[in-house]
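From the methods appendix. Each design record in this collection lists the tokenized structure first, followed by the designed amino acid sequence. Records were kept in a plain field format so they could be parsed without special tools. The example shown here is representative of the layout used throughout.

RECORD:
FOLD TOKENS (322 positions):
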């Protein structure tokens, strides 16, 4: 398998992980790359460097859930491979649960149907560790029950089952990547931001960091370029078809320890505030990544402390306008 001279479509490609994926794909010398994004969270500036490196990059301002319009883009671009990252985020599901659940499923259904109709060859679908909910016993492998605790998590679990059903019923060529908590440059630091960019931004603004709940919740963090590398390897290996692969560090980090690491890197000496738990917040997340190690020789290359330093440096540079 190769991406050289392929025509690739990335949904959500102007977002955090999506834009890094576009950067990674360019190195594989495809013939075409197109991005479909409705810019709910994505930013055109996230693709500026990619556009310089790959001037033929096409960017479509389009809702990925509208099958007919996305189908026309696929036909126009001669798309062979789709990396589906388009999504409405978890925090939005706490405010508008029905909208997030329905919309996320509609996006996935559009591409399952297009794959069934042979509009393109291969679907690499991005899931989320949130589909698992709380870890029931140690590191979670891909057979862990899907016990998502938010409408967002339920939508991701449903999308995975939808892709699997189309694989089994209609024989579509698809793999599912289930990333745990990604972090790194370009992660959204505005509405619906995650804990790492929020903490960095608060310290930059001379405000105290905030922990929701007791801070003993754990997460499994992976630097975004490690996730992107894994996604590309998943496409390149036919052994991953009809499978779900966890992509994570395999190490759990307490949220209070994470915030202390960021505070130390940024030289923050003040106190950290505590606020009430977020609704349905997951208590423990840690991944078993043995399957990815076996099938795609997966091994993260960026340690958490080094990744946090890179991330902080990027936000500081962004803030300074350099």
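DESIGN:
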């Amino acid at each position: 398998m190769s991406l050289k001279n392929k025509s690739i479509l990335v949904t959500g490609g102007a977002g955090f992980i999506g834009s890094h994926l576009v950067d990674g794909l360019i190195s594989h010398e495809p013939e075409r790359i197109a991005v479909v994004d409705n810019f709910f969270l994505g930013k055109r500036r996230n693709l500026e460097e990619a556009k310089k490196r790959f001037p033929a990059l096409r960017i479509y301002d389009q809702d990925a859930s509208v099958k007919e319009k996305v189908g026309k883009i696929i036909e126009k671009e001669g798309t062979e491979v789709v990396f589906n990252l388009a999504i409405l985020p978890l925090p939005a599901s706490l405010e508008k649960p029905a909208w997030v659940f329905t919309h996320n499923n509609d996006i996935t259904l559009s591409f399952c149907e297009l794959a069934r109709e042979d509009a393109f060859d291969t679907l690499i679908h991005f899931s989320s560790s949130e589909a698992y909910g709380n870890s029931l016993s140690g590191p979670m492998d891909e057979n862990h029950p899907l016990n998502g605790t938010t409408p967002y998590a339920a939508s991701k679990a449903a999308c995975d089952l939808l892709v699997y059903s189309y694989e089994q019923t209609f024989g579509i060529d698809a793999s599912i990547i289930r990333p745990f908590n990604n972090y790194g440059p370009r992660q959204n630091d505005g509405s619906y931001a995650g804990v790492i960019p929020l903490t960095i931004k608060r310290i930059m603004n001379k405000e105290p960091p905030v922990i929701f709940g007791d801070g003993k919740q754990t997460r499994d963090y992976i630097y975004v370029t490690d996730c992107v590398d894994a996604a590309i390897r998943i496409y390149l290996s036919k052994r991953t078809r009809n499978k779900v692969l966890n992509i994570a560090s395999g190490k759990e980090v307490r949220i209070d320890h994470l915030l202390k690491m960021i505070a130390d890197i940024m030289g923050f000496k003040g106190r950290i505030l505590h606020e009430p738990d977020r609704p349905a917040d997951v208590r423990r997340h840690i991944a078993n990544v043995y399957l990815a190690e076996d099938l795609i020789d997966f091994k993260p290359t960026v340690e958490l402390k080094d990744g946090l330093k890179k991330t902080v440096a990027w936000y500081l540079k962004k803030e300074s306008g350099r």
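APPENDIX NOTE: Residues 97-116 form the longest helix (20 residues).
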